[in-house]
Amino acid sequence: MVVDVEELAVERLAAQHLDQGARQDFVRQQLGAVMDHDARRNSQLLTTLATWLDSGCNTAQAARELHVERHSMHHRLQRIFELCGGDPRGTGRLAALHLATRLAVL
What we know:
- The chain has a single domain (5-103), classed as PucR C-terminal helix-turn-helix domain (Arc Repressor Mutant, subunit A, Orthogonal Bundle), CATH 1.10.10.
- It has six helices and no strands.
- It has helices at residues 9-17, 20-41, 45-54, 59-66, 70-84, 93-103.
- The protein is globular and about 40 Å long.
């Protein structure tokens, strides 16, 4: 797999300017409920959220990438939104969630 260095710009910036503890605190603050749900239920909601966000919030595209039906994708997103305090589209929270999903893998 070839990765364009520009795709990692946010991660590089965060790694250079935030210590690991600050990154982990931010991720936990934004995604703690989703991460806890995944740990308790062995689910993949964090992966689902990251894929959806990386697709530009395109539910159909994310469903294809995850090899799930659109109905299942909508159900997963509904659960994620419940855990995150509501649908983040159209809010500043969308950017924060996207950043947190990217930092979660650092």
